[in-house]
Structure formats: structure tokens, C-alpha cells
Amino acid sequence: MTEPLLKVQNLSRHFGGTSTPVRAVDDVSFEIARGETLGLVGESGCGKTSLVRTLLKLGPATGGSALIDGVDITRSGGRQLHELRRRMQVVFQDPYQSLNPRMRVDRLISEPWALHPGTVPKSLWRAETVKLLESVGLRAEHAERYPSEFSGGQRQRLGIARALALNPTLLVCDEPVSALDVSVQAQVVNLLSRLRRERNLAMLFVAHDLAVVRHISDRVMVMYLGKIIETGPKHSIFSAPAHPYTQALLSAVPTPDPRLRGKRKRIVLQGDLPSPVNPPSGCRFRTRCWKATSICAEQEPALTARTSAHGLLTACHHAEADPAVAGE
Amino acid sequence: MALLEVNDLRVSFDTAAGRILALNGVSFSLNRGEVLALLGESGSGKSVTASAIMDLVPNPPGAIDHGSIRFDGSELLQLPRQERRDLCGDRIALIFQDALAALNPVYPVGWQIAEMFRIHGRTVQGGVEKAVIDLLTAIGIPDPERRAKQYPHEFSGGMRQRIMIAMAVALEPDVIIADEPTTALDVTIQAQVVDLLNAIRKRSDAGMIFITHDLGVVAELADRVAVMYAGRIVETASVFELFDDARHPYSVGLLASQPRMDTDEDELVPIPGSAPNPAALPSGCAFRTRCPRAEKLCAEVVPHLETVGPGRQVACHFPVSPA
Q1: How does residue A124 score in pLDDT terms, banded at 50, 70 and 90?
Q2: C-alpha distance from A328 to closest chain B C-alpha (Å)
Q3: Is the predicted pLDDT of residue B140 greater than 90, yes or no?
Q4: Superfamily assignment of B4-106+151-309 in CATH?
Q5: b/e B189-199 (16+ beta carbons within 10 angstroms → b)
Q6: Do A269 and B253 touch (CB under 8 A)?
Q7: How many CB pairs under 8 A join A and B?
Q8: Cβ–Cβ of A183/B192 closer than 8 Å?
């Protein structure tokens, strides 16, 4: 097997003191192959954003490693980190806050080349900027405008163009379409799909909209309270989820078909997310799980293959597919 | 007769970019026991419609320029201010999107729910305190006696939204307006809140206006749908008709642009372009610049809502033919 592009091992990110840390990301391992899109889903507070920030080294890891092309991001600094960041770029959620309002578009897009001398010679900046703008569906004349002159969808295209300027191998997309209207969201999803095909981009696609994640991803990873609780090829996750939390999550997605109203099995979770300062012993989901037994409080379930679903890994002692809640 | 009837409502706002029309002739009706979804994207005028009904349009810069809002036989826009205020909260209630901003941070939630009874001078059998506990129990807040004494920040987002719902239904209103009550919530919590709203509508005879941009929630909750675009209603239909057989090109585009959970699509089908600037709306039909069916006529003449079937209206010169 070829070496994965990104190899994350036992990565943790804790906040606060050592006595009672908030375990935002706790002992997480996964890989992303070249050209592959991994979708990351989970609800607010599950650690998605902390994981993304740790991978981008926007904050230090508490433990573990994250290797991109064999180099550990968590232990990089200075020149080496600067070099690594060329290979992994990010598209942020809010296109209103992530673009400097005082920079003209041509400067916004060429700034990465100024920060990484030797990538694109200055004489070509103008031509390359136009090429990038056109590749994200904008036009050459847009180079002379300011971000405030663009709509939300167009701004997100600018953010994508800027992220692609250094020709990264990994694109981290943190809720890239959540701030956009439905009709515009589809434009940006299509753009990202096309760009990843054309450039053989690997993507970590973080979103809470499960239908969008299902559309764009090859594999999907589900997080709950700092842990990966289930992961696998998207069709295994969506057609035969075996973790009770994944099942509840899928069953809660409203179906845009009024004829199915009340006909689908709906698992309504009781209570709220427990505090990550003092997570439940054993399985972290057990306090809201209808299948929990004594073993769940005693032993933390490992993320392994537990059902016949192709490539599906589930961290649950009682993992079992439930045909009534399959999303597909 | 309809419980609530909105007719040719026009609301405008003074902005730095000039006077903009937020609502440009909105008409719809709501019956008892019915859930009407107002479906549209940001800036389409959904929330302004709610504000106009609740007398919450800030004036200045906003003003209701034209139209009528009839509730249970009386014209709201002609009622003296105090009478109208008394009606709102009592017989017409609003559930806000952002519960944290809508609740007062310095009073316990029980006190705030009880305020509904005090302000509207209602006496309840068994006392207000008991009524508050009963409401908290009904919305599924565990340990209601203790929780009533807690402050908004001590509750999760989903619980705060349920407290908003408790306040809205406290006086058993005839009309409940829910303005994107689940948009800020996670999907499992959204499911809890949608279930709660469904339970309330089954228990009471109230009509509900549910404002949302989420087609999935519409499919789960609505009886009828009014689709809004750029300050106008462009289509009204029963929820089944809309999903099976949308007639306005915008409704069709909205349905097609959503990724599905049950099929694999190679490419999504977006609506090209983005919503128009309300200060510079296209002439004629505001959707024409993004519309695949637009012709010369669309730039010249504003299409009005025309009845095309029982309970069905479309504002389009070239609607999609029935399926």
C-alpha cells in the first residue's frame, strides 16, 4: 500500500490545567490518502474545530503526531512549518471574516506567493491570478475589486482561490458552505468537487450538513466528545451505520420528502452533550445511549471492524447495523 | 374565514444605499390548526414579515407603507398601539431564532416565563408558579422546580430554545410564529425541537407560521408552503404539491440544488448567480437574472401571484408545466 498523505496517530489536544483538562481532541488516529476526501461530522463541541486547528498547527498538540508526507506537523516550527503550510491550505467557514477587507483581490491572491518566494515569479503574478480566478468561476476584472464588492458565494470562491495559490496537496475545508444560502451552496460544493478531481487534491471536509458531506466525501469520520466513534467508506457509514450515535445522527436529519413524514424511524437522543472536562468513564456516549450496559462504563470500546459493512470501524461494544435508520 | 390574513404588505427601510423595499406586496393566509412554512433564503423577507405581524418593525428606519394584516376579524394595522401590543404575546406569539439574545440574562427563566402571565394580567388556577413548572415539564426540562430558578446561561442551546417555546405557548395563543427556531441548533437537538413543536400543534388549535430555509424541516412540519424571493411570495402550495410538482422556477431550483441522502448525484444543480441586492432589484421579475426560463416579458412586467389550482398560486410568466 502506498504511504498516506496525512497520517494522524494518537493525536490529542487538551485545554486548561493538567489536573482537569478539557479533552477537546483525545487520542485520535486516522489517515487521508492522496486525492481522497475525508468528511468529518459531529455536533458542536465534539472537537472538529480543535482537530482542524491542531492539524494546521494553529495550536499545539498535547500528544501524538500528524505526519504529512512523513513530516510531523505537531513538532514542526519555523522554516519547516512554513514549508509544510505550502502543502496544506485551509478554506474557512466565514467568507466575511477570513478575507482582509482592505486588500484588493489581486493582492489577496498573490500574497501567498510573496510569503513563499520562489513559488511563482513576480512577473507571472498577474497572469496566475487571472488563471486562479477563472478556475474558481470568477473573472479577470474581479482582480481589481475589494472583498466588500462580492456576495457570500463569490467570497468563498475567493477564499478557495487563495487557498489554491500555492498548489497544496491537502485542502482543509472547515464548514466551507454553512454560511451560504442553499442555492449558492451547491455552486461551491460543485466547485470543490471539480477542483479536487482536476488537481488530485486531498481534502478534509468538515461540516455538520450530512447530505453535503455524503455528496462530497469518499470516506466519513464521526466524532463525539473528542473521540472518533465510527469511520469508514461513505456508503458503509450512510447505509449501515453500526454506532448508536451515528444512527441517531442520521435518523435526526430531516428528509426533504413530506411523504416520509412520521414513517422513518427517528431516534431522539435524550439530554445534552456531557462536559468534556469530566467525560463519562468507558464509552463517552453511554450516558445518552439506549444500548448501554455495565461494560460500557467499565471499558472504553476500541475503534475496530465490528460488522460486515465494508471498511467500517466502530467504537461500540454493542455495534450492530439497524436497517430502519439507514440514511440511504 | 382565515385566522390571519396578510394582504399586499409592503415594508421599506431607509438605508445608506437608499430606500429599500424589504416586502414588496406579500399576501397569504393562515387557518386554524395549520402550519404554514415561509421558505426562503437570507434577505428574502421572511423575518420582516414576522416583524410586521408582531409590530416589531423598527420605525425609523423601517415603515409599513401599505397593506393589511387581519387577525380574527380585526385589522391590526389600524388598532391603537396599546391594543395591538396587548394582542401580541397573548394571542399572537413569536419564537425567536436566537434564544440567548431573546432571553434576559439577569432574570431566572421561571421568572421570565411567569412574566407572560403578569404582563397580560392573566390569573391561572393553582397560581403562576405552578403554571411555570407545568410548562417546563411539558417542554421536557428535567427537574423543573430547580431549573426554574436558574439563569439562561445555565441552559444548553436546545433547552433555551425550548424555554422560548414555553414562553410563546404560555398564554395559549391562536397564532404562533416561529422564526428559524432550529437554525442555530445541532441536528439531534433540532429533531427534539421539531418534535416538540409538532406535539404542541397537535395539542392546540393554533395556527403556526414556520419561517425557515431548510427544505427538510419544511417536509417534516408544514401543511402549506409559501416560497419567498426578494420580498415577494413567488409560490404557495401544499407541502406535497411543492415537493412533487413545484411550478415556480425558483422553487424548482431550490429543490434541485439540495444534495440528497438517498441517491448519488454526480453534480448538484445550483441556481446560477446569487440573490439580488435589495437596493437594486432587477426590473420586472426579480428572479429573472438567475432564471433559465426568463424571456423579454420577464424584464418588463412584474408577474403577480395567480391562482393555478385550489390553494395554489404562482407568480411567474412562464411557470414549469404540471408534472
Answers
A1: very high
A2: 4
A3: no
A4: P-loop containing nucleotide triphosphate hydrolases (3.40.50.300)
A5: bbbbbbbbbbe
A6: no
A7: 130
A8: no
Output the nine-digit C-alpha cell for A178.
454553512
- A1 — pLDDT class (breaks 50, 70, 90): low
Best residue in B41, B182, B186, B195 to probe A by mutation, most A CBs within 10 Å?
Answer: B186
The residues spanned by each domain of chain B are: 4-106+151-309
Q: Write the DSSP symbol of residue A210.
A: H
Do A228 and A303 touch, CB atoms closer than 8 A?
yes
Contact B270 A184 (CB under 8 A): yes
The beta-carbon neighbor of B258 closest among A43, A249, A256 is: A256
Query: Per residue in B202-216, pLDDT tens?
Result: 888 899 999 999 999
Residue B321, pLDDT score: 87
C-alpha cell at B52: 410586521
Residue numbers in A near B269 (CB within 8 A): 186
Judge whether residue B149 has pLDDT over 90. Answer: yes
State chain B's mean pLDDT as an integer: 92
Strands (E), A180-322: 202-206, 219-224, 227-233, 304-305, 313-314
Burial status of residue A319 (CB atoms within 10 A of its CB: 0-12, 13-18, 19 or more): buried
- The closest of A261, A262, A240, A259 to A250, measured between CA atoms, is A240
Of the residues A223, A257, A273, A289, the best mutation for testing chain B's interface (the one with the most B CB atoms within 10 Å of its CB) is A257
Rounded to two decimals, the ipTM of the complex is 0.85
DSSP-assigned beta bridge partners for residue A39: A205, A220
> What DSSP string describes A241-256?
--SHHHHHHHHHSPPS
What are the CA-CA distances from residue A78 to residues A71, A75, A183 (Å)?
Answer: 14, 10, 42
Chain A environment of B286 (Cβ under 8 Å): none
B92 neighbors B71 (Cβ within 8 angstroms): yes
- Domains of chain A are 6-217 (3.40.50.300), 235-325 (no CATH)
Residue numbers in B near A153 (CB within 8 A): 274
